[in-house]
Design a protein that fits this description.
The protein is an alpha/beta fold and 470 residues long. The protein is built from 20 helices and 16 strands. It has four domains: 101 residues, PAS domain (Beta-Lactamase, 2-Layer Sandwich); 174 residues, P-loop containing nucleotide triphosphate hydrolases (Rossmann fold, 3-Layer(aba) Sandwich), CATH 3.40.50.300; 85 residues, Helicase, Ruva Protein, domain 3; 63 residues, Homeodomain-like (Arc Repressor Mutant, subunit A, Orthogonal Bundle), CATH 1.10.10. The radius of gyration is 34 Å and the shape is elongated. It binds adenosine-5'-triphosphate and magnesium ion. Adenosine-5'-triphosphate binds next to α7 and α15.
Length: 470
């Protein structure tokens, strides 16, 4: 029988819905049909004999001609369109001699389905992006910072003034004084206020993860890393503010890396070579005596100076007792909403007691005491008996908190009265109370509390979170 002529073959190929290219084993173009040539604005004479990579965008024909592995229905962008490409090795007498490839537009139905799927993904993405952005907006403004005492008003005014500058701020003050609230308010009224506010608690992130949290990581940087890598918080905070909370707990090795990033205004994601420019303002906070840490060599002096361009020292509640009344009123308003109550007030004796107390946990402690009282309240007046035991004890705890032993004495706990219930509930109850007692004793220092309890700080933070202890 007579073989098909070249004209016949050409005609048959042109009738098919696909464009065809043939390469030899070296990936040199041996044939390309007219429709394909027209599609990429060239001619057969022009392309024959050229490496296929020089002729077709994003081609993999030369690879298939080498590997002998077919590739079916691969999406390949060519000339601004996404094409569906299939590539087959040509095997003659058991040897790979080249490859044939076809491309065509996807089936209109498939294309529509594909477009719908993508549109759905784009919609989901924009929803999650707006949710994340909402999360990253700082939640408080200066109006949320309550206090009429001269020392508080002075620091609030100062914070307002410096919020306009772009310099780093170091906020110090005892636990629960409102450092995080100040950081939020400063960001909000700064020029960066419409950009993200990204808080990170340096104490609660395990040392080995801190760098990748802050600077991100490249694909395959370590086992368990997410495919495609992950942006670090410095990148997430672009044009906004990074709030480095508990900076005193940052390990020394990380301090050096942070210093370098701040000096060079760029970061290097973990496991990568490239550097990424950063544009963020830094607000750092700590309840620790950071100057002492510098003297002792546990905090880098150069980093301290870099962070401490502006320092805000938030006064503790015991030094502004005149604020207790107005703070209690504001906190009660907040709690009334949470507990569906109305018109809750403090009795004069309770207010008097509050004024005597030393408030080692500051405003957070006041908030906790009021929340506890509202929980057990019969009417709308908080009285002596609604206070926790340690406040009902009249002895001066000013001396007490400085003692080197916890103020809840062992013999006060009557173990025979423990309720009969699943053991894990009792264990949890005792664990929670022990943590609360220890935090009171350490005046809110979580690090010290974790040390006293003989557990790691990460595990301590996890427990606090699990028991809702702030
Ligand atoms: N001046 C204030 N006005 C209103 N609420 C305040 C004020 N100060 C603190 N608070 C409230 O007290 C709680 C503790 O504040 P915040 O978390 O900012 O303290 P902090 O200084 O960061 O404490 P820590 O060192 O333990 O992290 C929060 O619930 C906050 O809303
Ligand atoms: Mg804080």
């Amino acid at each position: 029988m007579k073989m098909l002529s070249r004209e016949w073959l050409e005609e048959i190929i042109s009738l098919l819905n696909e464009r065809i290219v043939v390469v030899n084993q070296e990936g040199i173009v041996m044939y390309m049909d007219k429709a394909y040539c027209d599609f990429i604005n060239t001619t057969m004479e022009e392309v024959i004999g050229k490496p296929v990579q020089d002729v077709i965008e994003n081609t993999r024909m030369h690879i298939v001609a080498k590997t002998g592995k077919e590739e079916i229905q691969d999406f390949q962008p060519i000339n601004g369109s996404v094409m569906v490409a299939s590539r087959f090795p040509i095997v003659i007498d058991g040897e790979i001699v080249g490859a044939v490839g076809t491309v065509n537009f996807p089936d209109p139905e498939d294309l529509r389905g594909f477009k719908n799927n993508i549109q759905q993904l784009v919609n989901d993405l924009s929803y999650y992006r707006s949710e994340v952005e909402k999360e990253l907006k700082s939640k408080y403004t200066f109006d949320d910072l309550v206090g009429d005492s001269p020392s508080f008003k002075k620091i609030k005014e100062f914070a307002k003034v410096i919020s306009g500058s772009d310099s780093s701020v170091l906020i110090t003050g005892e636990s629960g004084t409102g450092k995080e609230l100040f950081a939020n308010a400063i960001h909000n009224s700064s020029l960066r206020g419409h950009h993200p506010f990204v808080p990170i608690n340096c104490a609660s992130i395990p040392e080995e993860l801190l760098e990748s949290e802050l600077f991100g990581y490249e694909d395959g940087a370590f086992t368990g890393a997410k495919k495609g890598g992950k942006k670090g918080l410095f990148e997430v905070a672009k044009n906004g503010t990074v709030f480095l909370d508990e900076i005193g707990d940052m390990p020394l090795s990380m301090q050096s890396k942070l210093l370098r990033a701040l000096q060079e205004r760029e970061i290097q994601p973990v496991g990568g070579q490239k550097t990424v420019p950063i544009d963020v303002r830094i607000i750092a906070a700590t309840h620790q005596d950071i100057q002492k840490m510098v003297e002792e060599g546990t905090f880098r002096k150069d980093l301290y100076y870099r962070l401490n361009v502006i320092q805000l020292e938030i006064p503790s509640l015991r030094n502004r007792k005149e604020d207790i009344k107005i703070l209690s009123e504001m906190l009660l308003k907040k709690l009334e909403k949470k507990f569906y109550r109305k018109g809750v007030m403090l009795s004069p004796e309770v207010l008097e007691r509050f004024k005597q107390h030393s408030w080692p946990g500051n405003v957070r402690e006041l908030e906790n005491v009021l929340e506890r009282a509202i929980n057990v309240l019969d009417d709308h007046i908080i009285k002596w008996n609604d206070l926790p035991l340690y406040l009902r004890e009249l002895k001066k705890e000013e001396e007490n908190v400085h003692q080197q032993e916890t103020h809840v004495k062992r013999d006060e706990i009557n173990l025979s009265l423990l309720p009969i219930q699943p053991l894990k509930d009792t264990v949890a109850m005792v664990e929670k109370q022990t943590i609360i007692n220890t935090l009171e004793f350490t005046r809110g220092s979580k690090l010290k509390a974790a040390q006293l309890l003989g557990i790691g700080k990460t595990s301590f933070y996890d427990k606090c979170k699990a028991y809702g202890i702030k």
